[in-house]
Amino acid sequence: MMRHLATLVTLVVGVISTAAMAQDADLVKRGEYLATAGDCAACHTAPKGGKPFAGGYPLGSPMGTIWSTNITPSKQSGIGNWTEEQFARAVREGVSPSGNLYPAMPYDSYSLITDEDMKALYAYFQSSVAPVDAVPAHKTELSFPFSQRILMSGWNLLNLNKTRFTAKSGEDAQVARGRYLSEGLAHCATCHTPRDLTMAMKTDENLAGGLVGAWEAPNITTDRVSGLGDWTDAEIAQYLKQGHVPGKGVAAGPMAEAVELSLSKLTDGDISAITAYLRTVPAVADPTQKAAPATFGTPVEDHYSFDSTAARKGLHAANEGRAADASVYADATRSDFTSINDGAVLYDSACASCHMPSGAGSKDGYYPSLYQSTATGSVHPNNLVMTVLEGVHRTGSSGPTLMPAFENDMNDRQVAAVASFVAQNFGNPAMTITPETVAEFRSGGPKPLLAKFGTYLIGVPVAAIIAFALLAIGVVRLQRREVHGS
Ligand code: HEC
Ligand code: HEC
Ligand code: HEC
């Protein structure tokens, strides 16, 4: 009898603890999915084979390089000793046990994460991520005054909304889910929303287009010319999952990373929810974009009918007359363009083998058409130039995609020439590209005013709020003296 009772007790205890373990496992699994949606790995894993979440990824900020930290559960080098509260405060409010974080960590988006999801994220990081007992090789060292992390408390007071996500009354459940993911974990606005002088997102221009270094994260509001108003739901969903929509555009640069590491791994339900949310974003027009990027260029059906004689020679029509003069093609090997400065010749030498002399791309669409694409039809030259400089590297649900980078093979004048040729012939002729533009993009993009005049600008709004006044007056004076005294 006693034996039976003991067996029964063991059984019951076993069932209860198995149930608890299953519940834990569910929580951890959900946390893993949320970490994917939040793309934590993109920034917390060092490039070229760094250990997952061990930090050491450089984020180029206008104020200098910010290095991500080790968020593995290592007790000595990571967050192994952190409580859930400490973790939640760092992720949602940008304050770690050792002080303020820079907003390069997108806590101003993550502030929306619900308590329930935070619990799951914490469970995943503490129990399922392999601990790495090493701190990243580089430490963030910004110049003064940005070296003063306490300044971020002032920035937070001005810019951080600490309310967690809740659906609006009457909000459609799918739209609410999409809004939660887009505004919170997937932090689309971090890249796609323009920023003001203090580098805060301009909330009244939500998703109207922003800069990520020199890359442009385009306007994805519902505007029919500047935004996604003319994209179908299926096209938006395909872009997010695969990063490639013929006749609309492809994802290169930072968006390729977001697609590869995060969006391509979300459920179809969540992708539809994000799409449904994007449909509700108020339209914001860019008056300089006169027609939708996808309307530039006439698509060529037969990939060799554009100009058959020239095409057979592998030449764009613009070069046909000159083809007899072999000298313009001297040195036209892929790795050495040194003596070529003509955009048309550069195009035929460096681009036509994949994008075709006509710009129509390959029949199967693997090499995309250079017509009807955001990068070439935009009035902004950023993504066309950046694609030539950095190429395209993306692994999506349909396998790897590769376009070589030309940054080491072409100088600024050559990149400007070939990009101008592409814009004039296949894209938006209003796009202007000079060697100076290329040089600026090469060095990381335009510097916002805050970085150029940071000591001056940050001093004013922040000092007023955090009683940093004395220091700020000193800083402002110093700056004025330099400006006027020279
Ligand atoms: C866009 C890049 C980026 C993304 C995405 C990102 N982080 Fe961070 N994170 C950073 C950077 C950079 C720092 C260090 C900031 C600093 O030094 O001030 C950081 C710091 C942290 C810290 C503080 C660690 C410490 O030792 O102080 C935690 C915790 C953290 N991140 C968790 C997360 C989680 C969880 C996610 C995903 C939900 C995530 N991060 C996504 C860039 C990012
Ligand atoms: C790390 C920065 C970053 C994040 C995060 C990001 N994007 Fe992007 N996105 C970009 C950049 C840069 C491009 C331009 C890519 C190109 O043309 O090669 C882009 C392009 C796009 C496009 C194509 C627009 C067009 O006109 O061609 C869509 C749609 C888009 N993003 C939606 C989203 C959504 C939705 C999210 C959030 C779920 C998101 N993005 C998150 C940087 C980002
Ligand atoms: C080896 C083949 C190859 C060569 C050579 C090549 N490309 Fe590409 N290109 C690609 C591929 C592949 C893609 C991306 C397709 C995708 O994302 O699905 C691409 C994409 C692009 C895009 C769209 C990028 C965006 O962000 O929307 C542009 C513009 C472009 N290439 C221009 C050029 C120019 C200009 C040259 C010559 C300087 C060139 N390419 C040379 C293969 C090539």
Give a structural overview.
Helix content is 44%, strand content 7%. The protein is mainly alpha-helical. The chain has four domains: 32-132 and 141-155, no CATH class; 173-278, Cytochrome Bc1 Complex, Chain D, domain 2 (Orthogonal Bundle), CATH 1.10.760; 293-442, Cytochrome c-like domain (Cytochrome Bc1 Complex, Chain D, domain 2); 453-485, no CATH class. The chain has a two-stranded antiparallel ribbon with strand order 1-2. The chain has a two-stranded antiparallel sheet with strand order 3-4. Strand 3 and strand 4 form a beta hairpin. Residues 182, 186-188, 190-192, 212, 215, 217-218, 220, 228, 236, 239-240, 249, 251-255, 258, 274, 278, 374-375, 383 line the site of one heme C.
Helix proportion: 40-55%
What would you call the structural class? mainly alpha
In CATH, what is the class of the largest domain? Mainly Alpha
Q: Which molecules other than protein and nucleic acid are bound?
A: heme C
Rg (C-alpha, Å): 26 Å
Percent of sequence in beta strands:
5-15%
Strand order, main sheet: write it out. 1-2
Main sheet characteristics: 2 strands, antiparallel
Return the domain count.
4
Average per-residue pLDDT, rounded, comes to: 83
CATH-derived topology of the largest domain: Cytochrome Bc1 Complex, Chain D, domain 2
Annotate the secondary structure layout.
Elements: H1 2-37, H2 40-44, E1 58-61, E2 64-67, H3 84-93, E3 95-96, E4 99-100, H4 107-110, H5 115-127, H6 151-159, H7 173-185, H8 188-192, E5 210-212, E6 215-217, H9 233-242, E7 244-245, E8 249-250, H10 253-261, H11 268-278, H12 308-312, H13 343-350, H14 352-355, H15 374-377, H16 382-390, E9 392-396, E10 399-403, H17 412-426, H18 435-442, H19 449-452, H20 454-466, H21 469-485
Helix pairs in contact: 1-5, 6-20, 7-11, 9-11, 13-17, 16-17, 17-18, 20-21
Bound molecules: heme C (3 copies).
One heme C (HEC) binds at residues 182, 186-188, 190-192, 212, 215, 217-218, 220, 228, 236, 239-240, 249, 251-255, 258, 274, 278, 374-375, 383.
